[in-house]
């Protein structure tokens, strides 16, 4: 049970699991929005960035609140039909970090809206975009606390050196996501 910050009644939290090429992705949320997306802990990834097989949804698929359904549809498209993510609704988020006005929130929204599929930005570029060019370190902090990985694409934020940098799901996962996007983008370009 997660109680909402406004002193209202606690959310009725539901979970759905998506079996992705990266492993089990857990999506938690309620009627108001997605609370968080949990990436698999392990860093054993499929060789090559070709997504394998269909995307099976395991438990929790019956009575899903709309934001969870949208989130699942968005993630499924991300792995299997990336061209369609641009036309899908981004689910509502219901996480305190994305409701309070803060630089972290500003950074996450900027990343969501401005850094498209197959693109990458440096921490400093993202700080610039979010309105504070000197806050590259704070951007790193915002990436670490991102409750919606993949949808809010913190994997697209890399070091200015071109090194992929850290990632909550581990560096191999970050590199997998980046090469998945690069491959898909090249396919779409042809």
TrEMBL record:
Which cofactor does the UniProt annotation name? Zn(2+)
Localization, per the record, is: Nucleus
Which BP terms in the Gene Ontology apply to this protein? DNA repair; methylation
What EC number(s) does its UniProt record assign?
A: 2.1.1.63
One GO MF term, please?
Answer: metal ion binding
GO cellular component term, pick one = nucleoplasm
Keywords in alphabetical order, please: DNA damage, DNA repair, DNA-binding, Metal-binding, Methyltransferase, Nucleus, Phosphoprotein, Transferase, Zinc
- Which family, according to the similarity comment? Belongs to the MGMT family.
Among its keywords, does the record have Magnesium?
A: no
Look up and give the organism this protein is from: Loxia curvirostra (Red crossbill)
Give the residue range of the signal peptide.
Answer: none
Reaction(s) catalysed by this chain's protein: a 6-O-methyl-2'-deoxyguanosine in DNA + L-cysteinyl-[protein] = S-methyl-L-cysteinyl-[protein] + a 2'-deoxyguanosine in DNA; a 4-O-methyl-thymidine in DNA + L-cysteinyl-[protein] = a thymidine in DNA + S-methyl-L-cysteinyl-[protein]
Q: Which domain of life is it from?
A: Eukaryota
Gene that produces this protein = Mgmt
The Methylated-DNA-[protein]-cysteine S-methyltransferase DNA binding domain covers 105-182
Task: State what this protein does.
Answer: Involved in the cellular defense against the biological effects of O6-methylguanine (O6-MeG) and O4-methylthymine (O4-MeT) in DNA. Repairs the methylated nucleobase in DNA by stoichiometrically transferring the methyl group to a cysteine residue in the enzyme. This is a suicide reaction: the enzyme is irreversibly inactivated.
> Is Zinc set as a keyword in this record?
yes
Positions of the Methylguanine DNA methyltransferase ribonuclease-like domain: 20-90
This one is known as Methylated-DNA--protein-cysteine methyltransferase
What stretches pass through the bilayer? none
């Amino acid at each position: 049970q997660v109680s909402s910050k406004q002193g209202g009644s606690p959310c009725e939290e539901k979970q759905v699991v998506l079996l992705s090429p990266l492993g089990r992705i857990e999506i938690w949320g309620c009627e108001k929005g997605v609370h968080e997306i949990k990436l698999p802990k392990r860093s054993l990834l499929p060789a090559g960035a070709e997504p394998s097989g269909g995307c099976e949804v395991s438990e929790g698929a019956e009575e899903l609140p709309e934001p969870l359904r949208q989130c699942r549809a968005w993630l499924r498209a991300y792995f299997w039909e990336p061209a369609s993510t641009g036309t899908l609704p981004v689910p509502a988020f219901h996480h305190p970090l994305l409701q309070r006005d803060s630089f972290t929130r500003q950074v996450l929204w900027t990343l969501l809206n401005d850094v498209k599929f197959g693109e990458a930005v440096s921490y400093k570029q993202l700080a610039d975009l979010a309105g504070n060019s000197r806050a590259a370190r704070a951007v790193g902090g915002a990436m670490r606390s991102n409750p919606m990985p993949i949808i809010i694409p913190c994997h697209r934020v890399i070091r200015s050196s071109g090194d992929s940098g850290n990632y909550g799901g581990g560096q191999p996962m970050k590199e997998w996501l980046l090469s998945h996007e690069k491959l898909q983008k090249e396919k779409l370009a042809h």
